[in-house]
What we know:
The complex is a heterodimer of chains A (312) and B (497). Chain A is an alpha+beta fold. Chain A has eight helices and 13 strands. Chain A has a five-stranded mixed sheet with strand order 3-2-1-5-8, with no helix packed on it. A three-stranded mixed sheet of chain A has the order 4-11-9. Chain A has a three-stranded antiparallel sheet with strand order 7-6-10, with no helix packed on it. The two termini of chain A are 38 Å apart. The model of chain A is unreliable at 1-9 (pLDDT under 50). Helix content of chain B is 76%, strand content 1%. Chain B has a two-stranded antiparallel sheet with strand order 1-2. In chain B, helix 3 crosses helix 10. In chain B, 58% of the residues are buried. At the A-B interface, helix 1, helix 2, helix 3, strand 6 and strand 10 of A face helix 3, helix 5, helix 12, helix 13 and helix 14 of B.
Amino acid sequence: MIIAASTVPNAWLPDSASSMAPAIDALFYALLSASTIAVVAFVLTVSGRIPRRVVEAASTGWRVWVGLALASVGLGAGFLVGLVDWVALRQAPGDALVVHVRIDDGRFAYSIPAFDVDAPELVVPVDTPIQLISHGDEDGHLWSAPALRLHAAVSPQARTTTWFEATKPGRFDVFGSRADGTPIASTAVGVVVPDVFGEWVDERAGGGDLPPVERGRKVFVDLGCAVCHSETLESGGKACPPLGGRYGGPTTLVGGEVIAFDGDYVRESLLDPSAKIVAGFQPVMPSFAGRIRPRQLDAIVAYLESIGDTGR
Amino acid sequence: MTGKPLSAPQSSGPLSWLLTSDHRRLAWLYLVAVATCLAVAGVLALVGRVEQFAPSSDLLSPVGYRQVFALHGMMMLWLVVVPAIPGVLANALLPSRLGASAFVFPRVNRLAFQLYVIGAALLVATRGEGAAALARVLADPARALALREQAVTVAGLMAVGASSWLMALNIAVTIGRHRGRAGAARSPLVWGLAAGAISRLGIGAVGFASVLVGLGTTMESVRDLGWSIDGHAAFVRHLGWPTADAAAYTLTLPAMGVAAEIVARHLEPLTERDYRTVRAVAIALAAIVGLGWFAYGVWLAIPPTHAMAAVFASQFAFLMAVPIGAFLVALVVASRGAVAPAEPGYAFALAFASFLLIGTLSGLFCAALSLGVHLRGTTFAVAHLHYVLMGGTVVAWLGGLYQFWPQIAGRRASATLGRIACVVIVVGFHLAYFSQFILGARGMPRGLGRYDHVSGALLDGLRPWHQVSTLGAAVLGVGLVVAAMGLVLGRRVDPAS
């Protein structure tokens, strides 16, 4: 599913895969060019390749001040470019997708709240600003992705925020280590096109790797269903129809119609709750259209089926 | 007027040596101590580099690796780089250069050496554990409470810090007292030592106070008075980047003086133009001292964790490149393109200039705010600090030893071995540390002994350069041994010649 592209380092810097990389790399190469010129000039002067009178002429009178001024301008430019790019690096775009990074049982764990995803690997869509919030445990850690020019040194119990926008799909290595130097078996960052990202999210939303029934219970609680619906045979004082012992049996609606309490009915109730109201109850259930993914719907159906005989 | 060489009869016996306040004997004591610490710290680094040769080497555990390099760094910084030039070269050369018979405070000089020895013993007592803990505190002030468990190491640091401060006091006062004498005002060595001493006096006092405050706020009773953890964390942060950057310049100032003095010796007789160059050098050194003090003053006002502190740190580093660059230009121009320097002292001085040049330029990479985010936690920063501190200070120290060995030891160092040593050291140094520039630019974090948890192409891009760096470290070690041999195997000679 994740497109495997090799990251081929060029002479100095690793593969450039983030939107800020060109600016950072440009400054690097500018400084490198200036440094090379300086070192070559040094070697030529010290070894006598440049005639002595040229050296002496170049280092007297007004030429010294001109040289000093030029050097100062160059240095000032280098500083300013670094400053401007740094300010941009610190401010994530407002519509950035938020990802939280933490250490869970010795490995990194990534959660994307917007999609209710919690996974041991990080997959992000291409050309989308991502805000990465790293949470330190009691020791602190390092998380760095050279190809994305990201480097987060996280202090214990602290948060470090950074952002990036990946510019091409691929797998980009992550260096991870605890503060004492122990490497953390790191996964890479996978960057994928939005369609593939949607599939990845669908597979993981709402409970991730749990079996369907447990995942369904988790969604049931996370989405707040348990607030209004009891999971036993009785309503227990709650305002809405009890859901225990219902699946597979008949349900009487307002107006007298009797329908089967099956998967289609459950899905319709979540997406369009006012379509079919159970007799004796009010149409107060909110719609979950747009807030619930197909996999979560399947999970709830599985869960309700599991409590369909005797309730929870 | 030169001091007596050691061949002349003096009070002998170990006790007289241990209790001496004769600056010439102290120079010898410092030389033996510094050389020993250099050897130990160098072996530690070699062990660490052997671990990094292969991605999944198991020679050291990750914690052990950190301890090895933390101890290496602490020993090299405090027990070698800090005392090398003031302790050895200033003690051996300064009074005679000034036309004085002794330092103004000879007993303070002795106390400084004794504190150095005590501090050295304390620092190595915990065998890396204390050093690693301190390194973590510097990286992360919230852990400053851990300082309480490292009392031995902290006490050792205070001792060597006090030693270095007392030495600086002695040097500054002695130069101040005798500055009117002929030759003193025109000696780059005197200027370099004066600048380093003055810089050290100011920054050392602030640093010392910072540690005391930091320690104080780890105590409950002091916290009850209202000092928050954040408050003391800011003080502890004074010991790490960016404030350590300002302090590091105090270490290169004496080295710059030594190198300029060596070049001046090779140009004798000096013309009026050369004296103007020396004045330019002096102005550059003064600018460095002034900027360093100003930066330290700013750190007292802005908590180093504030965003503006990072901006100022970057600005300061770029500014500092101007006087350092001016010094290097002056040095290079003054060398007048002398071809094929035959004297090893001169060769070392030129090597020092080349290393300081690369070190300063690489500092700009690290200081640039946007680029620095990518580079500062990597081995690029490690390479930068080695070019400045090792290639800068230690190489200049070696040059001073070779150049002035007749005065220090009554022997002329072996020129052949010295030249060989210089070439081997330069080659080994670049192999060892230029590869770290490349590794860091490719993303290799500092402080990781194992790097097999990255895949494929990234690992292929890292592994060969790690191997080159380990090879270079071995070559550098050989070069240092040859340099020592060249000094030891020198021929006896009358120092006046």
